[in-house]
Amino acid sequence: MITLQTNLGDIKIELNFDKAPITAENFKQYVEEGFYNGTIFHRVIKGFMAQGGGFAPGLEEKATRESIKNEANNGLSNKRGTIAMARTQEPHSASAQFFINLTDNNFLDFTSESLQGWGYCVFGEVVEGMEVVDKMTLIETGNMFGHGDVPKEEIIITAATVE
């Protein structure tokens, strides 16, 4: 179990080591290293997802470890309350950034081992605190340093811990 303590409340996440062993271990390691402490949810889109894990306040990008293999072909779906890895257009580019699905986003699921089909790897789900994630969508967003959908009031992960 992982607890993300935020300035809006706590979010408890259960990782799925059976279906996404590489991804779950990668996330857990970042938590154990204290990487997420003091990071922000830098992209929040109502009715879609809340993304965090890569920036300190002021949109200061954090250096990460190497990218990991995309395990999106694990049969898990991007349903409301699941946590998945964010990545670039390159399917195997996820490192530290993650997002929590605010609704069922099955269009993000794996369909094939192709550039368009890889999808986004679900590796766990929120088991407590989904109301905190929903609260994020009430904060007005805008553009900042070339990034869109940035909350105008920072949503900070003050501490991330493994229980």
TrEMBL record:
GO terms for cellular component: cytoplasm. The keyword Cytoplasm applies. It is an enzyme of class 5 (isomerase). CDD domains: cyclophilin_EcCYP_like. GO terms for biological process: protein folding. Belongs to the cyclophilin-type PPIase family. Its main location: cytoplasm. It is found in: Cytoplasm. This is Peptidyl-prolyl cis-trans isomerase. It comes from the Bacteria. PPIases accelerate the folding of proteins. It catalyzes the cis-trans isomerization of proline imidic peptide bonds in oligopeptides. Gene3D superfamilies: Cyclophilin-like (2.40.100.10). Keywords: Cytoplasm, Isomerase, Rotamase. Its EC number is 5.2.1.8. PANTHER family: PEPTIDYL-PROLYL CIS-TRANS ISOMERASE CYP38, CHLOROPLASTIC (PTHR43246). One of its GO terms (molecular function) is peptidyl-prolyl cis-trans isomerase activity. Residues 1-162 form the PPIase cyclophilin-type domain. It comes from Litorilituus sediminis. It catalyses: [protein]-peptidylproline (omega=180) = [protein]-peptidylproline (omega=0). Pfam families: Pro_isomerase.
